[in-house]
Design a protein that fits this description.
The protein contains 12 helices and 10 strands. By secondary structure, the chain is α/β, with parallel strands linked by helices. The protein has 3 domains: 174 residues, Lysozyme-like (3-Layer(aba) Sandwich), CATH 3.40.80; 89 residues, Muramoyl-pentapeptide Carboxypeptidase, domain 1 (Orthogonal Bundle); 96 residues, no CATH class. Helix 5 packs across helix 6. The structure holds zinc ion. Zinc ion binds next to loops.
């Protein structure tokens, strides 16, 4: 089990874009796209919500000029940026088919001017966590690339949209394929179908996964981490010198790896970072975020001043400048959960008139009337919404 949600990626849309893979026993792969747009925050926000409206979401939206990253859906489920090849659902080919839309144009290869940073590294680490090999099986992405059907069906690695059978788009253009792999840093991907030895020798996996709303893996903390540690010790799977404690360290990863191997996992499936199945077998149940004392640490924070600025700049994007989409989306999701905002507007990240109207309803529900229920968030009403729907308020 690899990374499903990249820690640090902004959540885009409703988080539910696809379903299970059709050919999970086929090797894991990645498909690179370009949005055929400019880059920068305004483009990120506009294209980000456009892809949701168009129901053409990739997994990842990436800005090569700012290293900003967003994620629409879990990497182990399908995305929606490819066309089918006849009856073959290309979006659902492979163990994973991770699709990335880069804010760039095919005619101007983004690797000529990009500035990959920590978020790009995190993306590539997540890709490698699924065992995607550092190869480009269909070769160059230059104009005139071929779309080899058998290669696509049988080989894992990195592809461009230009390589996918049954599709007619030519993105991402003639990018430097080695630069993509090089910018990932680190020791390369796990050997495909390999043995339990890792390509980078004794290195310990240091990524996180979110299972049922709780984080596991290096750096995660909370009572649920302690519970895993205690269960591992009880199973005789201990690499602990001390503890186990509330913070997930390499010792937890090594101990969990023993558990995975005991269950018969190998290779990248036994890297010491929990998957849902092995965790459930260890604990007998999957703890949920609501049942854990660690929940406050995982709550997102909404900045009240950002929100007010966004609400007064209706309709957001047309005014230029920042729209504070990340803050707005959290509140929109909460309003939707309250039944006050329809799904069509619930993740657009724009605090427009519809969202203002929905927020005014929330204010009236809180007992405000008249101009106190004008739809522009105030501290008390926002904190009430956050307390109910799981976010913190920075006032
Ligand atoms: Zn494309």
């Amino acid at each position: 089990m690899g990374t499903t949600w990249i820690a640090g990626a902004e959540r885009l849309g409703g988080g539910d874009i696809g379903g299970s893979m059709d050919t999970p026993s086929a090797p894991p792969r990645v498909v690179w796209h370009t949005t055929e747009s400019g880059a920068g925050d305004a483009a990120f926000d506009a294209v980000g919500s456009y892809l949701t409206r168009a129901a053409s979401e990739p997994h990842i939206l990436y800005d090569p000029t700012t290293d900003r990253i967003g994620q629409y859906g879990p990497l182990n489920e399908s995305a929606r940026a490819l066309r089918n090849d006849g009856s073959t659902r290309t979006n659902r080919t492979g163990r994973v088919c991770i699709q990335i839309e880069v804010l760039a144009r095919a005619g101007k290869p983004f690797t000529d001017y990009w500035k990959p940073g920590p978020n790009f590294k995190a993306l590539m680490a997540a890709i490698r966590s699924w065992g995607v090999p550092d190869t480009w099986p269909a070769g160059s992405c230059a104009p005139g690339a071929s779309r080899p059907r058998t290669t696509w069906a049988t080989k894992g690695g990195h592809y461009g949209h230009c390589h996918i059978p049954g599709n007619d788009h030519w993105d991402p253009g003639n990018i430097d394929r080695n630069a993509i792999l090089k910018a990932a840093g680190g020791g390369g991907s796990a050997p495909q179908g390999g043995t339990s030895g890792s390509a980078s020798g004794s290195s310990v996996a240091r990524y996180q996964v979110t299972i049922n709303g709780l984080k596991y893996g290096y750096g995660a903390s909370g009572s649920h981490v302690t519970a895993v540690g205690k269960a591992l010790v009880a199973q005789g799977c201990s690499a602990y010198q001390e503890g186990p404690g509330p913070n997930w360290t390499d010792a937890d990863t090594k101990s969990y790896q023993k558990w995975q191997k005991k269950l018969g996992y190998s290779g990248s499936d036994a890297d010491g970072v929990p998957g849902e199945a092995s965790l459930k077998r260890l604990l007998g149940t999957l703890p949920g975020a609501s049942a854990s004392a660690s929940k406050p640490a995982a709550k997102p924070t909404v900045d009240l001043s950002n929100l007010i600025a966004a609400a007064r700049r209706d309709p957001g994007l047309k005014q230029g400048g920042t729209t504070h989409a990340a803050d707005v989306r959290i509140v929109e999701a909460a309003l939707k959960a309250e039944g006050l905002l329809s799904a069509a507007y619930a993740s657009d990240g724009s605090f427009g008139s519809v969202t203002v109207t929905a927020y005014a309803k929330w204010q009236r529900r809180c007992g405000y009337t008249g101009s106190a229920a004008d739809g522009i968030p105030g501290k008390a009403s926002l904190e009430a919404l956050g307390a109910k729907r799981g976010f913190k308020v920075k006032a």
